[in-house]
Amino acid sequence: xxxxxxxxxxxxxxxxxxxxxxxxxxxxxxxxxxxxxxxxxxxxxxxxxxxxxxxxxxxxxxxxxxxxxxxxxxxxxxxxxxxxxxxxxxxxxxxxxxxxxxxxxxxxxxxxxxxxxxxxxxxxxxxxxxxxxxxxxxxxxxxxxxxxxxxxxxxxxxxxxxxxxxxxxxxxxxxxxxxxxxxxxxxxxxxxxxxxxxxxxxxxxxxxxxxxxxxxxxxxxxxxxxxxxxxxxxxxxxxxxxxxxxxxxxxxxxxxxxxxxxxxxxxxxxxxxxxxxxxxxxxxxxxxxxxxxxxxxxxxx
Length: 301
Description:
The protein is an alpha+beta fold. The protein is built from 6 helices and 16 strands.
């Protein structure tokens, strides 16, 4: 039978072992992988594996609604995974600065339920005294963007389970895992980001994946307020002459496995809305869009 794409929310009816009463049962969740077995992650986070021969029906469902608390937890873990060189809390906002290197490391994000517009003058002063644009990182639902304000660098935040990526052979893994970027990693990355910015986390662990001369990426494990441990993928780049070779998938699979080994149950990444090639790759790896975020200068509100 034709199967929905990986990442789709589905209901599967399947046969139980002979003699079971009732003989069939159902499972609802997001499709993780297909093949000899069909794997589904349920709402509770359990992974159910069903032999493909036992599947009776599989039906695509509408995406489950996302709770604001789920968004807050992912954004909290992500902010701790890329905190810049300096960070501080102000009335529920986490203010990060990194001498202007990257929007993510030089923006304030509303993580506390108390975060509102009353803090914006102090946020603007914080950044302007450092010679920086007072960027706000505004995820869906955590801050209401007034009409008429044009956002900058709108981003998809995609999530999935951590763990081993289906279809990737760990015995044929060319990925090196480094404690910090080496010269080859920086050459492939091609961005002038200081190593101290790349290695910074708050109460987290970080690793740098490399397929020498071909692909690089970063993973950081941090905790959300609800206790969930997340691994975030970032700085993923494949050298131009090495693209469409499967290196990005191998690299990300190794970083996801590393995150799971370091206690992460869930994974996230951020991709620009207009980077369709990247979003399609990540969808094929069972990442699904949870929410969007964007940057806005504080003085525009």
